[in-house]
Amino acid sequence: MKKAILSVLALTSMISACYYDNAEELYGTTPCDASAVTWTSDIQPLLQTQCVSCHSGASASAGKDFSTYTSVKASLNSAVGRMNKPVGDPLLMPPSGKLSTCSLTKMDAWVAAGAPQN
Ligand code: HEC
After folding, report:
1. Residue 29 Cα, ligand 1 centroid: separation in angstroms?
2. Of all protein residues, whose CA lies closest to atom 35 belonging to ligand 1?
3. How far is it, in rounded angstroms, from Cα 95 to Cα 40?
4. Dihedral sign (CA 77, 80, 39, 61)
5. Number of H helices, E strands in the chain
6. What would the pLDDT profile of 45-103 be if each residue is shown by its tens digit?
7. How far is C-alpha 78 from the geometric centre of its chain's CA atoms?
8. Exposed, middle or buried, 52 (CB in 10 Å: 0-12/13-18/19+)?
9. What pLDDT, on a 0 to 100 scale, did the predictor assign at position 30?
10. Does this model's pTM top 0.90?
């Protein structure tokens, strides 16, 4: 009996989780909250997923490493410049396509705040 209740609970939470995701995708209701952007929760994960596969280690593309705060800070202007190139520009980074407007907005907010290591 306990098991049955648990599985019903698990199933319910899975269904509601899916529903939530779909609603966001369908109606585009996810607001872009760039009011409390931090290095740890926003910028580092963004660069980690979008840039670090090419830009880290001994064979980093263009010798640029974006895997640590210090190395990102050192190349911040060129990194932001490349992210904001127009679609189709061969210099756009990442090469696979422009980051989402929300990601770019968060990046701008972080830079405007002085690119803190928060
Ligand atoms: C698929 C691999 C790949 C990914 C992912 C990638 N880059 Fe690059 N990046 C390159 C290559 C290759 C070059 C060298 C050619 C060039 O300058 O366009 C480069 C060059 C650069 C340069 C120029 C450095 C210089 O001093 O000339 C910057 C800045 C840069 N990338 C930033 C980024 C940022 C920021 C991201 C993530 C948003 C990113 N890249 C994602 C492959 C990648």
Report:
1. 32
2. 79
3. 24
4. negative
5. 5, 0
6. 999 999 999 999 999 999 999 999 999 999 999 999 999 999 999 999 999 999 999 99
7. 18
8. middle
9. 74
10. no
- The two tokens of residue 13 are 């939470």
For ligand 1, atom 8: residue with the closest CA: 93
**Sequence-separated (6 or more) residues with CB below 8 Å from residue 118:** 38, 39, 40
Atom of ligand 1 nearest to the CA of 91: 18
**Ligand 1 centroid to 32 CA: how many Å?**
25
CB neighbours of residue 49 within 10 Å: 11
User: Of all atoms in ligand 1, which is nearest to the CA of residue 78?
Assistant: 29
Relative to the CA of 80, which ligand 1 atom is closest? 35
